[in-house]
Amino acid sequence: MRNFGYFEEGYKSSISERTLLLRTMALLKPFILPFSGAVLLSLVVTGSGLALPWLMQQGIDLHITDSSNSIDVRMAGLGNIVLFYGILVGLNFIASFSQVILLEWMGQSIMHTLRQKLFRHMLQLNLGFFSKQPVGRLVTRVTNDIQNMHEMFTSIMVTLFNDLLKMLCIILLLISLSPKLGAILCLFIPLAVILTYFFSKLARNMFRDIRRQLSRLNSFIQETVSGIYLVQIFGQRRRLEEDFARLNDSYLNKTLRQIKLFGTFMPLTELMSSLAIAIILWYGGGELIRQQLSLGELVAFLSYMRLFFQPLRELSQKYSIVQSALASAERIFHLLDTDQTEDIVLSSSQTPTKIVPGGDLSFKKVDFSYVKGQPVLQGINFTVKEGETVAIVGPTGSGKSTLINLLLKFYTPEHGEISLGKHSLQEINTDNLRQEIGVVMQEMLILQDSLLNNIRLDTGKSEKEIETLIGQAQLSGFVDNLPEGLRTVIGEGGRAMSTGEKQLLAISRVLCRDPSVLVLDEASSAIDSRTEELLEQTLEACFRGRTVLIIAHRLSTVQRADRILVLEKGTICEQGSHAELLEKGGLYSKLLAIDFG
User: Quick check: pTM over 0.70?
Assistant: First the structure.
């Protein structure tokens, strides 16, 4: 799979319009039968529509202007014409209605499938991708961009076929009615093709600019609303209003440019239509006067002319939809083509191994950097025995959390190997690995759901088992104060909970999964000293039988560890027990002195 990079700024298209159309049409493959039905209905719509001017010609020439028959015969014949006219109008209505229903069902189904596919793909991308993409931009892909393609499937795919078929049939009918008048019409076709070609080129670039600017707007709004607490604390409202005004003005200007383009295209199409009708009226009127053309044929010819230019007049709107949809499709396919998936590619002879709980955790000469040439970890080499508790400490930026990211396979080491038990992480199924490693992090996602569901997630634990875990995590007091206990909906982001309560909830959630490896990444950083003391005995019980890694700035939390690793600038500079490191008087002693003032 190719990786197109997927960047907004300075982006230049690498997908041709032909490729975009082919990939977009490929989405229709599962719906080939309903699409074929819509095409057949379009034949009925086109045929019934084109028969109406012919019936008008027959009514005028055979009955209205034909004085050779009696009035009764002419009225009876005209009544039959009107009856057939009404039947065709009814048939056209039924076919059009059925076609709209079929196309809407098909379009909604395609959008549903594409939205699900895009969201599934995003969930498989690694953290490196998300660190470079604003959330609002990704939300735009799954919502606005996919919705933007909807009308292309519901009203464009088949109506373009309708219009092309209608225009071809009209040309043939006009040539059969009058070769000279048909030849006049053919003179306008190259002009219409050239005009449409240049319009499509300009329109696609403008729509790409509009979609890019809309993405910036969405990103800005999402980031501002999610950080509204900080915005109000630091008095940034005026500055953000000005920044948003600049983005909004730019979006307005880009949209107005697109409107001006369509405002130019539509009058030009109308001008061609009016000019063609004027020429036909002048020339055809002369032929009628010279009795080379009947009145019915002239009326039918003018009606067909209006029908011929009607699709061209609507082409601006349809090209607006097509080019807007192609601009969105281009961005969606770029995201789908992004190959930064989190699973490590195994050789053809390997299959992901299901991990067996237990075993030593080893880092063997591991090197890693987020940005090439700027190493974060260098030559990391240590082993955590099964059941051992190891703490990792060090100054900010020394690489502590990066070790956890590598352990969870969010990133891949540049050199070296990480193994758990008898297997390298590269050989282990990622989902199974993360089920066996429980992580309590500084920040956590809280769902807008009950406290009970936030803790048990997909584990299937009973409410009684969760109550036991709540007691171990010292959350009983918080739960008792909730109006509905465990079944209370705690809200998006857990805004009603204190930071300490959120971290206690995170510990409960991890304990619910009963992992064989427990990782505490600054887990007690926001818990007050009293709560931390209450949690000591619980954590001691949780550590038994588990391999434990503790990442901490507050060194009071790591003294229970069997061994302490001290990181500095991405390397292990010291290791040993709390007492041994104090005796050495190195970096650990200095950090401890700072921590305790």
Answer: no
